[in-house]
Prior knowledge:
Blueprint: E1 7-12, E2 16-22, E3 28-30, E4 39-40, E5 43-45, E6 51-53, H1 55-60, E7 68-69, E8 80-82, E9 85-87, H2 89-108, E10 114-119, H3 125-137, E11 144-147, H4 148-158, E12 168-174, E13 178-186, E14 189-198, H5 203-214, H6 222-238, E15 244-249, E16 252-258, H7 259-283, E17 291-297, H8 304-312, E18 317-319, H9 326-331, H10 352-356, H11 359-374, E19 377-379, E20 386-388, H12 391-419, H13 426-456, H14 460-487, H15 496-499, H16 504-522, H17 530-552, H18 556-572, H19 579-603
Parallel strand pairs: 1-10, 10-11, 12-17, 17-18
Antiparallel strand pairs: 1-2, 2-3, 2-4, 5-6, 5-7, 8-9, 12-13, 13-14, 15-16, 19-20
Amino acid sequence: MRSGQARLAIDYGSADTTAVLAWPDGTWTPLLFDGEPALPSAVLLSEDGTTVTGHPAWRAAPVTPHRFIPHPRQPSEQRLTVADTDVDPLDLVAATLRHVAEQAHQLAGTGIDDVRLVVPAGWGPRRRTWMRHAAHRAGLPPPQLIDAPTAVAGHLLATGLQLPVGAYIAVCDVGATAEVSVLRRGPAGFEVLATLADPTAGGTAIDDALTTTLTTSPPGADGQRWALTASLRAGKHALTDHPAVTVPLPDGPAVVLHTGLLDQAAQPVLHRIAHLTTEAITAAELTPRDLTGVYCVGGTARLPLLAQTLTDAGITPTLVDQPTLAAARGAADAGATNTTDPTTTEEPVPPVRRAAAIALPGFASLALVSQFLLTPEWRGSLMYREAILNWGELTMAAVFAVIACLSAGTVLASTIANRTTTPTSPGIHTGTGILAAASLGVAVSGMYAVVGSLYIGYPVNSFLRWTLLPITPSITAAAVMALIAARQWRTPAGGWSKLLAFPTSSVITAAAGMLLIQYSLTADRWPHLLLWIDLAGRVGGLLLGIGTVMAVVSQPILRLILSAPLAVITAALVSWPASGILGAIYAIAVTTWWLRQMWTHLLRPHRPPQ
């Protein structure tokens, strides 16, 4: 016996019922009925008033056909007449649910308090209440009702499918009937955008078509009808493993049922399913290209011709593993290691190397601001000295401070989002972390200006102009990204920490270039060192140009092509008057990087792979 409270999920369908028991550790097992995972939903009322369910009901149907009900799931207000007796369909459904509950208690070895019932997405409040009443009559605790497509989507996530927030999928549920739903994954779960059902497009319609194909005349009595239907159902399911099977007929010799005959009978029904799928996608105001995938579940979904029919209609389907159990598994969180909502979005934990890379722009910022403060060029007499400052170096120090703060804030927020036990969306943590980090970056840049003003002894206005103005576009982009992260409009591949990981190669190259430029401008001009000092400045200009291109372009071949002309230009600009321009050029490159990230990951229309 497993530890922890078991969860029972029941998918009560028109033709078959499946159920799954799951435990908190993620283990699960399907309930078996006469050795099969599918329990027929059919019931038979015996003469003594008892209700026979499942396979025994089908076996008894040819003998007492007037007491057999193949599809007890009826509209909530409908009454049935069986053997001249009015019967409430609620009692028939409750009988099947009671059968499932008894099997679950026997397997679990203890009482079950957590019950989930899978219902069609198109059911309204009346039918949902009706289903709750059926569970109550079956002796089950108050169940949680879960829409079938939402349960299937949860099963897909539990089995490893990657669905980012904002992705669209379609679930084609084809059992005895057909229901197609289009869903969007949001920060708190899946939202059903459109759902369409067709009771004439499913396994029951295919069975009727097979009856017409294999018999020259319809069965003369109800008993023969149910015996023939049972034989055809068994033969149709056997074709999934064999190319041909022999099907006995109640009023004649046996016939050979092969895949060609099955396809011939199923083709019109499957065309209706394809049309229904197209209509559901259109009703959600989407196109097939907008969908991450179309996932087929249900017993009829096993037919190979269904996939071909959907493909011919411009839809690429995927058959879900264990299609008859997918909804029950998803409703039970089977395969999940916890009992929380399986659709909760998780921010990937940043790798250690990414966290370590945060220190690089921070150290670069401290090195640049330290050199800026310690190496001003003083001109004039003692009473009227004037400091010639490398404003570009101060600008780059402020830019690197913002980059370091945003990288650190995003990594910490991503880590907290993975460790928190509250139901808050991880995007909220990430957005808050980005805003806090951006505020810290502004504060550090302002501190650089104030400290520089006090240390040099000049008014603070110029210092603020060269620290705060260049970082304003980057801070604005960070605020927009924080809003997008909180609203979960888009989730970048690898998480927000990867999105905001500024290229370390650009930081190292540009920082080294500016350090060499400042050294060349302030070093003592000894005659034998003039050539080397000037060469250091030109090399610094080259490095700054290369670092600027590294920030804007990621492709190696483009970096090589663009670095040469820009490096020559920045090397030629190395001088006191142009030092501020060099810093501004790099600040513009950083802003361009932010805009490129926003376009690539957030603003570009989302076209998931087909």
